[in-house]
Fold:
Amino acid sequence: MPEARTPEQRKADTLEKLNASELDAWVSTASTSGPHLVPLSVAWHAECLIIATEPSAVTTRNLAATGRARLGLGETRDVVVIDAEVVESTPANDAANAVIASYLAQCHWDPRDAGAPFVVHVLRPVRILAWREVNEIAERTLMRDGHWVV
Amino acid sequence: MPEARTPEQRKADTLEKLNASELDAWVSTASTSGPHLVPLSVAWHAECLIIATEPSAVTTRNLAATGRARLGLGETRDVVVIDAEVVESTPANDAANAVIASYLAQCHWDPRDAGAPFVVHVLRPVRILAWREVNEIAERTLMRDGHWVV
Structure:
């Protein structure tokens, strides 16, 4: 097992993941009928996560109902887990140009021009955890209550 | 984009993933306070998914409260998504020997001997979806209502 990284190194690695081209995440949301989980393209813009979903998608409905998501990035043995709150959900055509530009740059497609309507969600991280193996479970919290603790 | 696989090929690929050594999955569960998501080791035993969690873990509490999980396997562009129901959750020391043997063989650790108590959960898949890129969204359902449709 490799040596545990320092919190500072984990933050740097986490930001590198968040800024990666072709960033994908497992996005979980919940409703009274249970958990939902889908892989989605994600952009990192102004310290928020940007995702796009179809209006009828379970993820869209759950975000509207609960305002919350939990995202998993990376491989299962080099993970970043993010609890996030919905800041806004808007039809793609009404999304801010800067949000769309970030999404297009990082995800390589334009949700305004997808042949079907899409909803763009801006999610603000409130808690970020990062760990690889069991020796990194300690000190895994990088953000708490919306503030970086590292 | 590679050509879409046949449903039969997707089932074969899915079973290969489920039988892999060192199988990990993103496991989502839900409670009234929102979605939870963690990466966990998984074993495939008698057409059920076996996971082990600590008694105080959020996953343990959510499974007890709702009896449901949704698991994501694989990379985000070659995925298997499984909705599953809890068949039973037992302290590791009370789990069936065959269940423990499968877990040990596939996950390489023994939840009866982990230095802390663990709960072993047997989850029965009720719905299995498998897809790679957008051209595999059609025909992604391999199991419905607990029965393979392929």
